[in-house]
Amino acid sequence: MNTIPLAYKILPEIGEALSNRRPVVALETAVVTHGLPYPENLELAQTMEKTVRQSGAIPATIGVIDGNIRVGLEQEALERLANGKGLLKISRRDFAQAVALNASGGTTVAGTLIVARMARIQVFATGGIGGVHRQAPFDISPDLPELGRSPLVVVCAGAKAILNLPATLEVLETNGVPVLGFGVDEFPAFYARHSGLPVQYQVNSVEAIVAIAKAHWQLGMKSAILVVVPPPEEVALNEDAMEAAITTALEEAHQQGISGQAVTPFLLGRMAELTAGESLRANLALLENNARIAAQIAQQLASGPALPL
Ligand code: PSU
Ligand code: MN
After folding, report:
1. pLDDT digits (tens, 9 = 90+) for 261-279
2. Could you tell me whether strands 179-182 and 201-203 are parallel, antiparallel, or unpaired per DSSP bridges?
3. pTM of the model
4. 261 lines ligand 1 (CB under 6 A)
5. CATH homologous superfamily for the domain 8-302
6. Residue 123 in contact with residue 153, Cβ under 8 Å?
7. Is the dihedral of CA 163, 148, 309, 301 positive or negative?
8. What is the pLDDT of residue 2?
9. Sorting pLDDT into bands at 50, 70 and 90, what band is 307?
10. Is the dihedral of CA 176, 157, 108, 47 positive or negative?
11. Cβ neighbours, 10 Å, residue 171
12. Distance from the alpha carbon of residue 131 to the mean position of ligand 1, in angstroms
């Protein structure tokens, strides 16, 4: 039987940083290909990379270009993902198709975790993770089981508010993922700061996050640590306005028979329209905020002795 050589490329700057134990932060690209409109998506990807650098770490934006799994994307590759046609949304099930058919696409949280793990990156910044869908409780994002098997600190603003958040927290627990609130005791609702759901534990410093992450992995746990950060106050949506828009978007998705991988992009797109761009503004600001915090965590993690991973 023929096997396909795993096409995997890492940019030299990132490879060097990793071998010298310098701080690196992984960034996803499904948010570029399927989460945000052009040109905001490209600007966002560039801003996140810049923020990571300014905060003292090397950005490793992950995606698939012409069947090559890439750790680090040059400007041209990033532009293709932001503005190209026929791009895949790549989670665990989708890599083989992309590699075998020389396709290109953005990696989701699940997809990015798989690649970051191969590259031994320990910190990852994203917006909102996937989770359990409200109308279809059997539709559980592959992000959740992947968090259960990826030893990384993942910084996010909770799970996207379009989801069933209590069920999402339950499935995180099932998968052994500690959920730490950064300066908050409540799970944020992505666009909004409050969900009414408690986090497992509130941490008030980067040092505390790193201490817990190290203990977790030294105990032999293979799962991620989820650090949740509410969106910045100035851009956060009011909870009631957000819920009203979500209800409308969910009804439309149901009426139009949207299913599978298309559900999340459809809902995010409609949210932006229904809130006259406010959800988009919040989304961009929280992504940048998360990139900055992730870089600080990466620095702190890199400053101690190497972990047995
Ligand atoms: N966060 C955002 N926008 C996004 C996503 C996350 O702010 O578009 C993407 C992530 O890549 C996440 C994916 O992994 O949506 C989840 O999709 P699904 O529900 O189909 O698993
Ligand atoms: Mn799904």
Report:
1. 899 899 999 999 999 999 9
2. parallel
3. 0.95
4. yes
5. Indigoidine synthase domain (3.40.1790.10)
6. yes
7. positive
8. 41
9. low
10. negative
11. 21
12. 9
